[in-house]
Amino acid sequence: MQLCFATNNQHKIKEVRALLPATFTLLSLQDIGCAEELAEEQNTIPGNSFQKADYVFRNYGVACFADDSGLEVDSLNGAPGVDSAYYAGPQRSFDDNMNLLLKNLQEHTNRMAQFRTVITLITPDLTQQFEGILRGQILHEKRGTEGFGYDPLFLPDGFTHTLAEMALEDKNKISHRSKAMAKLIQYLTNLG
Ligand code: IMP
Hints:
The chain is an alpha/beta fold. It has a single domain (2-191), classed as Maf protein (Alpha-Beta Complex), CATH 3.90.950.10. The protein has helices spanning 10-19, 45-60, 94-105, 168-174, 176-191; strands at residues 2-5, 25-27, 64-73, 112-122, 127-138, 154-156.
């Protein structure tokens, strides 16, 4: 089955390709000729996930799914959340975002947080959403060089390595995105 993953993030394409069974052909936006930036104008993670999948389905007529993720920190009332990519400004710098997070957490002892992904699948017959959550805590210093985003600051519950200290295949076993993807894949498999 051909499915477009509506993202321009090559890290994610790589992660998801490693998770998909061979029966699925994963198409990128480039593969379907979509060169425009997909708008994310909603104020929730599920809203942005739907907006991107809906745009690609309506304009390119291909079955597709889109994800939207964010880091939700308990003592910051869920921030940065839907603003995770732009937390420190429009430059979308991973380092700037992490530094701002460390600063905003300075006064807080509760450093529990979660990554959340919502995937929206749209085919001619249905629209369905899938959620994945990874709980953990925000460290006081960055550790590791793998991955992207807030990975160097995030210590998953039950682990001694941050997401940035893990190999991609180990992160893929526990990540919010892989949990949401597993639900998507199970659903698609049941559909036949
Ligand atoms: P997106 O909507 O999935 O692109 O995620 C928005 C932002 O959340 C990213 O730019 C990252 O800052 C952060 N984020 C999402 N997933 C991850 C992850 O697996 N590790 C670290 N940061 C992430």
